[in-house]
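Could you please consider the sequence and fold following this short note?
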Amino acid sequence: MYVTHLECPKCGTVFDHRKVVQLCQNCAAPLLVRYDLKKIKNKFRKKRLKHRIYNLWRYKEFLPIKNEKNIVSLGEVITPLLKLKNLGKTLGFKHLYLKDEGLNPGGSFKSRGAAVGISRAKELNVKSFAMPTNGNAGAAWAIYAAKAGIEANIVMPKDAPLITRSECAGAGAKLYLVNGLINDAGKIVAKAVRQYGMMDASTLKEPYRIEGKKTMGFEIVEQFGWKIPDVILYPTGGGVGLIGIYKALLELREIGIIDVLPRLVAVQAQNCAPIVKAYENGQKESVFWENAKTVAFGITVPKALGDFLVLDAIYKTDGTAVSVSDEDILKYKLLLAGSEGLFICPEGAATAAAAHKLLEKGWIKPKEKVVLLNTGSGLKYFDTIKPNPPILDINDEIVYPL
């Protein structure tokens, strides 16, 4: 393992990675895992990857697991990078791609963070944790915790998708529902952590979830032949995926694999767009978004703990932040299904709507290579698709010709 320490990105304070550390003890900011990148540069060889397992653990030099016996795996895979030829032609893109995270265990990109987060928790001898969730994160951490033998305490809004609630319960997690949003669930978790001494696995309150999600960045670069696309659009709630991809790109640049960065785009829903508002105002942090509600439930995060890291990634890659309506989210969800046969989650569909919006504005050029991130399977959001036209009632009077 090449981890050297944990570091606060705000004040620079260094912490011991061999202990369970949550937030910076000086300024309460999220911590980032730091590696000896000089040693990694001397050891890492792209050609060696062809002999390694075809999942996120192939990037082991960049991951925080000391003993591979502690890896908790549910059969993670390298998710496909699909060229959207039909949709691209319809919308005016020459090179439009979608990275489909819905094929992960548990059906979402949250499995990446859970795989590494739970593996590291096991290595640090954690016995129980608590976390708030909008659904998929709790489901992912619950199933990996079951495999690891770690107690999971999950708190989620009662309006979260039924299937993710069922996943948590089915995996044996202690599930609690709150009449509110994820920030309300977070308050309950914070109290439980103080009272019972559990590890707090809330978004960015432990440093290893980012390390799992950053592997999306490694995969994208490898899938493009160790080159970068021009633009990556990411549905942004807590923002860990975008932060992770940015971290991966910086690490690859540091060891000389790439020399430039793609423009990163944070995509939010119009009814919950604190990052977009902060970006438009040139701010470094966002303001709590009142009355947040959107069909893309996974990105209904009124105030993200790591908002300053998301905004930093956008600013430093010459990226942007854009919001789209619920109507467009559902519209592009159907477009992707009808043109490409891809049944994706509303959060992923938001990136397609945002990409088209940016293309029409001229911010994205037609010939640029554009990657959309679909963060989960549409099967988890079956209630967002309505039959169109309505399904006919079939009766005995209908005769089918032979």
User: Anything to note?
Assistant: The mean pLDDT is 93.
